[in-house]
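Anyone up for a design puzzle?
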């Protein structure tokens, strides 16, 4: 049986390491070699594990367990063909040894044949009464196969076997999250906490589930219990701060973020949250102070630069906002929302060519929000490129065929280039889609809205809709 990660086979280990230093030859039981090898493997000392395997097999050439440990190392080193040949020999000697099928499953998993790996692991399960490790492996294989339901079932079995297997517990909740079964996760964690009421990890995960469900008082209580269970749990203080922000209790949120800073080295994320809290409290100087601390702590945190950008954008200091959004884009130039923000800033600065380019980048990167198409078309109008503005709205119409806003704008744009037939068609379509929004056309295109023919169209559509 494998040793726990921190367990030391002190006497055999010391004797073995002494042998390595002196070149003396000592004899060990096969079980001693197994313990020594497991210790080295658990601590990532592969070279020493290989030495122990080599010497162990010299002293116990018929030990199947030592041969299986040799296979485990070969699989780890991706020497899969050699490992498979050794497993063939071992299966001939002991076809009922579940470890043989586990190692074969590991080989198939490395070859991305997860279905075969699952089949072998299930065969291994049939051969043992202690399937804890096998269920963990099955859970991982099902994750590789995107079968989150079966993965969850296997990880739950791991937690049932060992309630302190927090890795399995995290995986259970991950599966619930991926399946968007937040209520299921909440029920599972509450049941778990009935049996393990002082588990800080479970309280922390429960708080996160309540947070996703926007059940902020319940989330706050869960994080409080996590802190009661472990008052050094930094993650619980941080998540509690986020909940307090949602509840508008910004001073208390700041206290929790500051606690995380006191407990360990300051983090850029804590500074960022503190800055946002101060901005909500109208403490502008403190907000700036913490935003600048954010990017000083981590110059590559694009969200820090974006926070400074948004701060100056709200203050209508668009020159500074432009400087900082470019900092964010230098870090993450593939972020569509950053490009959209850049476009809006350049629009405010009347840099319409730059705004046009930024909107194009945003759309190319997958931002297809309705207001993106509307703002972009406005930029092109201000740049006196009406035909391009029409082309942009035609693209936007593919995503929003029922948008009255797009139809009203296109009506006005067609009329601006004297394509009156198309303009009338678009106006009629907009009125039929949403008559109440006709003020959008009237306010943006007063030069056309006061004409008799427009008034007649509006009157006729109004009568027809009664």
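Challenge accepted. My sequence:
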């Amino acid at each position: 049986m494998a040793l726990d990660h921190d367990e030391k086979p002190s006497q055999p280990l010391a004797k073995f390491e002494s042998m390595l230093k002196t070149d003396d030859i000592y004899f060990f039981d096969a079980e001693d070699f197994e313990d020594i090898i497991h210790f080295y493997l658990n601590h990532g000392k592969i070279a020493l594990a290989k030495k122990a395997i080599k010497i162990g097999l010299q002293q116990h050439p018929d030990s199947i367990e030592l041969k299986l440990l040799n296979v485990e190392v070969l699989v780890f080193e991706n020497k899969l063909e050699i490992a498979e040949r050794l497993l063939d020999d071992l299966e001939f000697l002991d076809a009922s040894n579940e470890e043989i099928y586990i190692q074969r499953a590991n080989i198939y998993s490395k070859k991305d044949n997860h279905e075969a790996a699952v089949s072998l692991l299930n065969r291994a399960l049939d051969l043992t009464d202690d399937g804890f490790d096998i269920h963990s492996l099955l859970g991982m294989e099902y994750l590789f196969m995107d079968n989150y339901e079966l993965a969850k079932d296997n990880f739950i079995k791991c937690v049932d076997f060992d309630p302190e297997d927090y890795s399995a517990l995290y995986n259970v909740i991950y599966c619930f999250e991926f399946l968007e079964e937040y209520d299921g996760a909440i029920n599972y964690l509450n049941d778990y906490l009935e049996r393990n009421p002082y588990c800080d990890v479970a309280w922390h995960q429960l708080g996160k589930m309540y947070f996703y469900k926007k059940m902020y008082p319940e989330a706050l209580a869960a994080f409080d219990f996590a802190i009661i269970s472990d008052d050094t749990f930094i993650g619980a203080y941080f998540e509690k701060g986020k909940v307090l922000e949602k509840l508008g209790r910004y001073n208390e949120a700041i206290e929790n973020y500051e606690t995380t800073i006191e407990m360990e080295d300051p983090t850029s994320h804590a500074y960022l949250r503190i800055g946002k809290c101060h901005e909500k409290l109208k403490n502008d100087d403190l907000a700036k102070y913490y935003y600048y601390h954010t990017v000083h702590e981590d110059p590559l945190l694009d969200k820090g630069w974006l926070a400074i950008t948004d701060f100056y954008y709200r203050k209508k200091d668009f020159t500074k906002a432009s400087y900082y959004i470019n900092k964010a884009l230098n870090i993450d130039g593939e972020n569509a929302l950053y490009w959209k923000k850049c476009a809006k800033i350049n629009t405010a600065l009347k840099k319409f060519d730059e705004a046009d380019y930024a909107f194009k980048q945003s759309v190319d990167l997958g931002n297809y929000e309705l207001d993106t198409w509307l703002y972009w078309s406005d930029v092109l109008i201000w740049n006196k490129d009406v035909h391009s503005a029409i082309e942009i709205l035609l693209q936007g119409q593919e995503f929003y065929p029922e948008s009255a806003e797009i139809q009203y704008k296109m009506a006005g744009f067609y009329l601006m280039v004297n394509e009156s037939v198309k303009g009338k068609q678009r106006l009629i379509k907009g009125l039929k889609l949403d008559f109440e929004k006709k003020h959008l056309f009237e306010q943006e295109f007063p030069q056309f809205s006061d004409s008799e023919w427009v008034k007649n169209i509006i009157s006729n559509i109004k009568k027809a809709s009664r």
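A detail worth pointing out: The two ends are 82 Å apart (CA to CA).
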